[in-house]
Write a structure and sequence with these properties.
About 65% of the residues lie in helices and about 0% in strands. By secondary structure, it is mainly alpha-helical. The longest helix is centred in the middle third of the chain and has 33 residues. This is Secreted protein.
């Protein structure tokens, strides 16, 4: 038993020496560890001129306004049908779209100022953010289209059918007589 422990301890020591040697050799080569990717795939080179970015932003805003109108119409229909669940869902999505649209309008103004100052870096930055906001509105519109309402619309009307087996006797003579207990309950006191 002790010999097995010694072998296990020896293997653990050898493994830790190998790991330490690997770290030491990596540090000796001067290769610093690579920093984690913080862009998460969001970095994209913008090839439009600032003026073209401004025109494209106007297209984005028009699409976003159109999407808002669609969700607003769906909300009005849900209210007319008095569908509380769907109304709450659509109202939430519409509020999120309104906030995103307000932010997009502010970014549009910032982009306009950057174009007037001829600041290509800032205009590219604002245009990228506007693209993300446009995608957010598209996502919210898709979620609004998935808002469900009354369960009956999905499941359909339900009905219950009862069938009684004719072979079962339904004669009151076969019922057992009721048992009436007339014994008083036991006393809770030790003194009688």
């Amino acid at each position: 038993m002790q010999r097995e422990r010694m072998l296990g301890f020896g293997a653990l020591c050898a493994l830790s020496l190998l790991v330490a040697a690997g770290i030491a050799s990596a540090q000796a080569q001067g290769a610093p560890p690579a920093p984690p990717d913080t862009n998460a795939g969001l970095q994209r080179q913008v090839t439009l001129t600032p003026a073209q970015q401004l025109q494209e932003t106007d297209t984005y805003l028009a699409r976003m306004e159109s999407a808002r109108s669609v969700v607003r119409r769906l909300l009005e229909e849900a209210r007319a049908q008095r569908d509380v669940v769907k109304t709450l869902c659509l109202n939430d999505k519409l509020n999120q779209i309104d906030v995103t649209l307000r932010s997009a309008r502010e970014r549009r103004q910032s982009l306009d100022l950057a174009v007037k100052r001829d600041d290509a870096d800032l205009s590219s930055h604002e245009f990228t953010i506007l693209g993300v906001l446009r995608q957010r509105v598209e996502q919210l519109t898709a979620e609004a289209n998935q808002c469900i309402g009354k369960d009956a619309d999905i499941l359909g009307e339900t009905s219950t059918v009862t069938q009684i087996d004719p072979g079962i006797p339904d004669d009151p003579a076969f019922y057992p007589p009721p048992i009436i207990v007339q014994e008083p309950p036991p006393s809770a006191s030790v003194i009688k």
